[in-house]
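Now for our target.
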Amino acid sequence: MEDKSYSHLLAPLDLGFTTLRNRVLMGSMHTGLEEARDGFKKLAAFYAARAKGGVGLIVTGGFSPNFRGRLHPLSAEFSSARAARAHRAITDAVHEQGGKIALQLLHAGRYALHPFAVSASAVKSPISKFTPSEMSHRQIRKTIEAFAKSAELAREAGYDGVELMGSEGYLINQFICKRSNHRYDEWGGSYENRIRFPIELVKAVRARAGRDFIIVFRLSMLDLVEQGSTHDEVVQLAKQLELAGVTILNTGIGWHEARVPTIATQVPRAAFSWVTEKLKSEVSIPLVTCNRINTPQVAEDILASGQADMVSMARPFLADPDFVLKAEQDRADDINTCIGCNQACLDHVFVGKRASCLVNPQACYETELVLTPAAGKRKVAVVGAGPAGMATAVAAAERGFVVDLFEKNDHLGGQFNLAMQIPGKEEFKETIRYFSRRLEQTGVNVKLSHAVQADELKDYDEVIVATGVQPRMPNIPGIEHSKVIDYQTLIRDQIKLGQRVAVIGAGGIGIDVSTMLTEPEHQDLDDWLKDWGIDKAISHPGGLYPHDEYVSQRQVWLMQRRAGKMGKGPGKTTGWIHKRVLEKRGVEMLSGVNYDKIDDQGLHITVEGQSRVLDVDHIVVCAGQTSVEMLSNALKAMNVSVHVIGGADVAGEVDAKRVIRQGIELAARI
């Protein structure tokens, strides 16, 4: 039963010395602005927009309490009065909008990307280049003091609290677990000794920051790595953290080196709220749950069922700064929903670029990508209602242009209609829903089933061509054989395939199709957790147990012409998940393939000089795209101002992040 009032989500939370206006915590995200020139001015605008949008408590990206704790040599540090003064721009901007904000203090430990890395023990992480030095007793004490000093400075800077990053496998977590703590002094060995570091740290922070200051502790409740904590150990630590002075316990799921997806779109919504619930009866301070909560209803259901006292959402506030406000106003359908794709947020940060959002390119560009009112009621035509066309039409209409949107099909959404049918990409339908709403609200005149001709467009001030792409058919002898089908036809018409299928092309689409073809018939949350080896009792260390993996009944071969590694197409932070899924399901992945011919016997290939015949029922072609753009030349000949964007501009691999940003940037400048 839906509670449209979201009474639990919007209820205030009394912390004793202060009250949060609702149960929504905006989780910590590194944006890349923390280190950028003039970055704090941009960060202030970014956080102020989310405070104005109604968030109860914002948590910043991670700042290190000292030099050795930095993620990389140029990472943000918060350890001086000068830093505190600079941060005033952020805290003042948030407070002006009635919000509250906490500074996250994060020490990278062995995850540091520099040779000065330190940790509980000199044990290198599997995802790091550097082996950390083992911290001496003096270094440990100095690090605790650094955290306490930074918390005191955060208070001076106007922050309402701090979040101590004790999860995701960073330094505090490294002390807690046997996996990375091999010491035998008072800071290692027994569990009591291993948790001394977080306990002493919280006590020191509370002593320096005062009693009326929020301390959030991000506690790793499910490590998802070997030699991680058990549930009983998590309970023991949580109780001691409460006694030491923690105000709120936030949930952390999985170390960065864990080989289990935790936030990507393949993860079911609210997949880990049960983890927080297990701790709920053990402590009396508020608990926050997190990961893949992206609608007010999902959040409301978690809180109403008593699984947590607050919900943390991070990326949903990149997608829509007004998420809470829209929930308050019973406008949940107007929310630009996070689709969990990682492509413009985590993937950007991973390579040192500024974070943004695929569905909202204005995120982290609040002061730069601005849609200013247009002078006069100029007429704009947008041809093609895929992601690029819809985003452009909405942005142009927001500026005050009179916009007509033409689409040859009888529906909106373009390639997203295909994407949302891929298992684990169902969220893409939310983006079509959001843009459809905005087209209606901004008064765009949508003309479906209308293959527009050039002469119909001659009276427009601006024409934007966003006609997308069509599948590219490679030149292979026999490509017209009845066994062959292109990916668009397969997905659109939901063609039933045989038990033996070859997939030509291992880019993002080839991987998606292979995933779809090997998906189990029915999979609920418990099946998903079991498939990834997650022990719901958390009785095994790290919450992982040895398990049987689902192997598909259908035999699929996934092939690429290029030699070398597969899975380079998908995003940096999600490519490994796709690859792991296909390995688990028994998909045979072949690279350096030459396609010789297709006939009744099947697909004839040559791999590493060896000829093979794959006796397959069907061959699915996912060999890239070609542009279907033919309008622009005719329009230029008529002296019409024309712009070509999206797949019509660059066919390449389908890239919604690029095409939506391109469209909105164009709408901002015409």
About this structure: The longest strand covers residues 214-222. Residues 115 and 257 are 19 Å apart (CA to CA). The chain is about 30% helix and 15% strand. The chain has a mean pLDDT of 94.
